[in-house]
Amino acid sequence: MKTSILILTLFAILVAISCKNSTNGKTNDAQITDSTEIKKIIPRGNDTVIAQKYDCCFIVSTIIDYPEKDVEIKGTILMLHGWNLPATEWCEKTSFCEKALAEGYVLIIPDYNKSNYALELYPQTRADYQKYPTITWMMDFQIPYFQETFGLLKPEQNNLIAGISTGARGATLLAYYHPEIFKGAASLSGDFDITAMQDEFLYYAFFGQYNDFPERWRDECFAYDCKNYKVPTYIGHGEADKVSPVVQSKAMYDSIKKYQPELKLIGNFPSAAGHNYDYWESETDNVLEFFKCCR
């Protein structure tokens, strides 16, 4: 039973005076009317705690869930949901959160809505998608906020990251950029080499058409730089996935294995599994067992 849920909401007022969007260097024309922060925190109690912080770029709500008081905390798992999936659905439709809490993990569950973990917002990014957070903002603002306000995701701690679908792309990207923070990662049904998915709406809606911006597409993934991928990783992907091609995960597994032969890396590609919570539930025990290696 979950005993403590902490909801962190970062408010972004998209028209700010003197507030720069760090993801693209542009200045927004807005006015921040209130910068009050509520920082009352009950690390392991029975109450819901709401912390609010005004920031300049995006609106994100985050649930931080702690184990029961009598359970020893063993680490933190940052959980990233799929594109346009409810952030808490992974917890509701699988046993992952229940089992992770029972094992002593603090869970951080941000709601990124339709973010696809772009490094930047571009002139070609659809106007209605410019309100979704970039991975640069997550790294430059949100992770430091968790560290400073809640004492979580500090480099000296046992921090892990897991994602499903587009969240799996985000999980491996954050692991790639911050190996000093994350000790282990799990990717389920994710995309890696997005240049092989040029007709995928989720990517050209953010980056523009591949034929117009091939270098931009390459820069938006680490598929061409696996020699610098350093975080122990579990890669799972069903071969019957009709949403994200399994070849994405298989090719990335092979590439990381080639360039990092000593890195702890597990690949699991069940033949009958699709792109759904039935499959992601089947990986719950595998991922949590893999995370034990990283303590």
CATH architecture: 3-Layer(aba) Sandwich
Put simply, the count of helices is 9
> Sheet with the most strands?
9 strands, mixed
Number of strands: 11
CATH superfamily: Alpha/Beta hydrolase fold, catalytic domain
CATH domain class name: Alpha Beta
Quick rundown:
The chain has 295 residues and is an alpha/beta fold. It has nine helices and eleven strands.
Walk me through what this model shows:
Helix 4 (166-177) links the parallel strand 8 and strand 9. The chain is globular and about 55 Å long. The protein has helices at 89-93, 96-102, 135-150, 166-177, 201-207, 214-219, 246-259, 277-282, 284-291; strands at 4-12, 19-20, 27-28, 49-55, 60-66, 75-80, 105-111, 159-164, 182-188, 233-236, 265-268. It is an alpha/beta fold and 295 residues long. It has a single domain (58-294), classed as Rossmann fold, CATH 3.40.50.1820. The chain is built from nine helices and eleven strands. A nine-stranded mixed beta sheet has the order 4-1-5-7-6-8-9-10-11, sandwiched between helices. Strands 2-3 form a two-stranded antiparallel sheet.
List keywords for this structure.
single chain, 295 residues, two-stranded antiparallel ribbon, 9-stranded mixed sheet, 11 strands, Rossmann fold
